[in-house]
Amino acid sequence: MSDWLVLVLAMLGACAVVVVITVVRHKRAPEDEDPNDTPDVIEYMTMWIGVVYAIVLGLAIAGVWEARSAAQDHVQAEAQALHEISERVRVYPPDVRDRIRGDVDAYVSYVVTTEWKSMTDHGRVTAHGAELLGRVRQDVTDYQPRNDFEAQAYQPVLDQMAAADQARNARADSTGATMPPVVWWGLLAGAVITVGMVFALQIRRTARELVLAGLFSATIAFMLFLIWDFDAPFSRGIAATAEPFLNLFPHAGG
């Protein structure tokens, strides 16, 4: 099911629930009930709960968006480090240079074509990807520079190798959900309480009030959807992409 279809269904469902509850409550309300007779303390509590929940939603959205941006930064850092390795080994002998570049290309191609799907479907990186990167590390660390010019390039290549390994580990740590289950329970419970407070104000069945109540509940559903969509940086609609690898290694996706 498309993420956008989930969003539409969630918003429509939220509106339908509010309208149905309002209509049922209106039919069962006593004839002498006065909708304008709402205690001031209830209005104060409704406003306070709404403000607090809006702050919580804002913090949750900011948190998952930051996690998604960080995941994309890890991909960029890894791709850039591997690109630097391929470029800096040009001073090495042709056989060493070609072997290192070949192993880098093999690793990048595997990440783009195979490992990315594993991150999307299963939320984890693969052992074979670590093995391929280990092969690049072995190529880089086992080479002994033959002259001062190669020695000057050797340490920067090692630094880029360490940066690529660190970025891969950070990418692996970013594949899962970022929001703990207890936070989700809090967000969902807060949504129910916030929407429920609308009925504490004795909402009437006028078109204007029904539209406003429906839009209010649909907005909360939309915010929760955004949090859910950003919660898995590599798995859902607005997800981190492998574009940095493809930009620096155009042949990787072939």
Low-confidence stretches: none
The total of helices stands at 8
- In total, the number of strands is 0
**SSE succession:** HHHHHHHH
Indicate the mean pLDDT. 82
How much helical structure, as a percent, in the residues? Answer: over 70%
- Described by the principal axes of the CA atoms, the overall outline is elongated
Radius of gyration: 27 Å
Q: For the terminal residues, how far apart are their CA atoms? A: 28 Å
Strand content: under 5%
Main sheet record: none
| Class per helix and strand makeup | mainly alpha
Describe the structure in brief.
This protein is an all-alpha fold. It has helices at 3-28, 40-88, 94-122, 127-142, 148-173, 181-200, 207-231, 243-248. The chain is elongated and about 90 Å long.
